[in-house]
Each structure stands twice: as C-alpha cells, then as structure tokens.
User: What shape does this take?
Amino acid sequence: MLRELVLKELVGGLWHTTHPDRFTKILESGSISPEPDIPEKERWDTRDSRESCSYVRFIGGVSLFDLYEFEPESYSHKFPSSSWHYFIPFHLMWGCAVWIEIKRDQAASHLIPPIELKNRWESEKAYRHRTMPGIEAAYMGVLPRTAFKRAFMVRKDDTQLYSLEI
Assistant: This one.
C-alpha cells in the first residue's frame, strides 16, 4: 500500500533519496554533494571500501532515480537483481526517507541518463561497483538546491506523505 502511494508520486520524475537528518544538512549546505561528510559505514553498499562503492559515487556523481517511464513489474522482470525495492518507499534500514524531486531541465547539462550510465558501467567493466540499470542516473558534481522542485518524507507504518519545505 505505502509502496504504491510513493510510486504514484515518484513515477515520471527525477529523484534523490536521503535520510531526514541528511536532508537537513543538505538544506543547510545548499546542495547535495557527491561526497557528503558521512561515515563510510553509513553509505549504501560500500562493504567498507571505496573500491566497492556504488558506480555513481565511484565516478564522482550524485545518485538519482530517473523514473520517467518506470513500471515496477516489467522492470523487475528485466533486471531481477536490481535493488530498487530496497529504496522505495524508503531505505529499509532507516524505515523512513526524504525524496527530493530534481528539475530535469536544470540538471540536464550535468546528467548522465540511465542508459548512458549503464553503457559506461559495462564498457568500463566496473562490475564491482553496483548500479541500478535503467533507473539510476548520475548528476556529475554538486547538485544545487536551486535545482530542487519539491520534497516529501515517508515513514514506515504511516499511510501518508509529508511535504517538506525546500
């Protein structure tokens, strides 16, 4: 139920997800950094090493979900090992998440779209670095707050989304 509610909001957009505490820091700093000041062990799938970090982080980008034409069933069939369900509706370890929608037109000049990102990952044979083919995009560089369109928070055991000021 909650996943469907969140997906209804996300599909069609370009999004970054983060923990509510990190969202506060993003607002304070005025941007999303490819290398935020957070402990390595708190990053997704680092296995305690920069050599095994996500592909987007490895190339110096900010990870975004590009859900322009996302359809969960067909995507899961095509990419059964993708971990999208770990993040939608919220990061499973956190039980909550803030979703920040990014203005596609403002991000375009710094964006590596999902298909290009997947092709680059494959051509570099960067298989030790995880990616979510077809839905993960990379914003190269620091993503300014001026590119934020809107944000909302979702929490485990809740049935509503909470709009947040950006």
Observations:
- Helices lie at 2-10, 20-29, 55-58, 72-78, 84-87, 104-107, 114-123.
- The chain has one domain: 2-164.
- Residues 75 and 95 are 24 Å apart (CA to CA).
- The chain has seven helices and nine strands.
